[in-house]
Structure formats: C-alpha cells, structure tokens
Amino acid sequence: MTKLIKDRINVNSAAIKLAEYNYETKRLKLTFRGKHWTKDRKYIYLNVEPFIFEGLRSAESIGRFVNKHIKPLTFERL
Predict the structure, then answer these.
(1) Which H, E and C letters describe the chain, residue by residue?
(2) Alpha-carbon dihedral angle through residues 6, 43, 13, 62, given to the nearest 10 degrees
C-alpha cells in the first residue's frame, strides 16, 4: 500500500485556483487567481494540519474557509 504524500485539488472559487498539500511537511500551497493584468499569486502556509486541508476540500465556501482557517496561519509568498 502506497502512502499519499502530496495531494492537489482544483478549487471551485472565484479567488483561488489551486490547492496543493504535502502531508509530510504539512505545507499548503494556494494559488490565488490574478486579475486580467496581474499574474496568479502563490502562498505557502506552514504547519497546516491534514484535517484543515480536508476541511478545505469539503468546504461549502472555499473563500470563507480560507479566510477563517488558513489566512491566520504563518505563510511565505512565492
């Protein structure tokens, strides 16, 4: 049986394009959609527990979930 190390989901959101999670490092990379004149913005959130990623996957409103549970976390802008 192979252990899942990374997971990636295309997000159905006006603001967020893609979410990538690494189960070993507990890092969540979010790609925010750019406007027509700007590039997409990418952020890596540190020490994100797996249940937070699973909550993101099943959230009714991705934007509300990100604002409440992910944005308060430590991050790095890429």
Answers:
(1) CCCCCEEEEECCCCCEEEEEEECCCCEEEEEECCCCCCCCEEEEECCCCHHHHHHHHHCCCHHHHHHHHHCCCCEEEC
(2) 80
| Residue 23 C-beta-side C-alpha neighbours within 13 Å | 9
Predicted TM-score of the model (pTM): 0.86
Which burial class, exposed, middle or buried, applies to 39 when counting CB atoms under 10 A from its CB (0-12, 13-18, 19+)?
Answer: exposed
* 40-66 pLDDT per residue, tens: 899 999 999 999 999 999 898 898 999
